[in-house]
Each structure stands twice: as structure tokens, then as C-alpha cells.
Amino acid sequence: MARYKVVPERSHLTAEARSSLHPVKWQTTGLTGFVEADVDGGAPRLGAPFKVEIEAGKLKSGSFLNDSELQRRLETRKFPRVIGDVKSADVVAGTTRWRLAGNLSVHGVTRATDAEVTVRAIDDKTIEIEGDKVIDIRDYGMTPPRILMLKVYPDVKVHARLVAVREE
User: Fold this and answer.
1) How far apart are the C-alpha atoms of 70 and 93, rounded to whole Å?
2) DSSP letters along 10-44, please?
3) Looking at residue 84, what is its pLDDT?
4) Which residues are CB-contacts of 127 (< 8 A; sequence separation ≥ 6)?
5) 29-72 tens-digit pLDDT
6) Confidence (pTM)
7) What span, in angstroms and rounded, lies between the C-alpha atoms of 61 and 19?
8) Measuring CA to CA, which of 21, 70, 104, 126 is 20 to 30 A from 43?
9) In angstroms, how far is CA 36 from the centroid of its own chain?
10) How far is CA 3 from CA 33, 49, 110, 167, in A?
């Protein structure tokens, strides 16, 4: 397996929550970390372990109120990083999808989790990993926020796209 470094400016994370009024969406670039993979003649094969992180304070919605409330709930000064620590990667038979299993650390709480992702080779030195996962923020010690009259529900859909380049 070769080591691939996540390219922060080409990788992004989006978190979308439903509210009593409208969806609330936060996003950021700047994911960091590494991925173990082989790209031999086409379809990439993932290895494990690997780790990906973001600075929690970089998640922005464009709304000062929403962003302030998210930073307060995440306690970004106390818990500045969101960390995905992948322990195993298994191909879903007959597909380009992979099931990742490991730990997700948010707000100082680490929970075992899994997710399905799509993996593809962009070129002979670059891979892309993309997937979605719905998390319940209460599992990470946070209560759903209320922003003025807006009630935010606890299930948050997280979408990540990682672009990683082979280290020489």
C-alpha cells in the first residue's frame, strides 16, 4: 500500500441540518490527513488504518448567528478538531464502494462508526474518496441548538470529499 496525503484545498466537508424553518448548511475546505491505498491498473484499493481531520472552527454557513451557535455548541476552543480515524476498509462486492469502520471524534467525544464511500482514481497519482453519513449530535454530547425561533433537529447529514495525492 502507498501513502496518499489529503490535499486540503481540494477536499471539503459539508454538514447539513434540518430546522423548523429551513435547512442549515455549514461547509469547509482544509481537511488534512493521509490515506493508505493502491491503484494498480484502475480501481483503487483502500487500506487501513488512516486518519482525516478538520478544524471545527472552519465550518461556516455564511450566517453569523448560525456560525456563532455552532462554534458555541462544538466548543471549538476546547475541542478544536473533528477527527475521523479509520480502522478498517472493506470493498462492497462488485462495486467501487467501500465500507469504512473506525472512530469519529467530535466535541471531545469519540464513538465507533462506519460509512460507505465511493473511491476512484483521478489519475495515476491522485484518488478521490466521497461519501455521506448521518450523525445524531446528541451522541457526541451536544444538544440541538435553538437560534432565535429556529429549532435545529439533532440529525446532521455530513458529506465529505477527499482528494489525496500519492507521496513520493
Assistant:
1) 38
2) G-EEEEEEEESSS-EEEEEE--EEEEEEEESSSSE
3) 95
4) 4, 35, 37, 39, 44, 119, 120, 121, 163, 164
5) 999 999 999 887 667 889 989 999 999 989 898 888 888 888 88
6) 0.89
7) 14
8) 104
9) 17
10) 10, 11, 25, 6
Amino acid at the residue 144: P
Domain encompassing residue 113: 2-166
Calpha distance 80→75 (Å, rounded): 8
CA pair distance 168, 150, nearest whole angstrom: 49
| Angle of CA points 71, 76, 77, to nearest 5° | 125
Q: How many structural domains comprise the chain?
A: 1
Would the pLDDT of 145 be above 80? no
pLDDT in tens, 78-89: 999 999 999 999
Q: Domain of 31: which CATH number?
A: 2.40.128.110
Confidence band for 13, pLDDT divided at 50, 70 and 90: very high
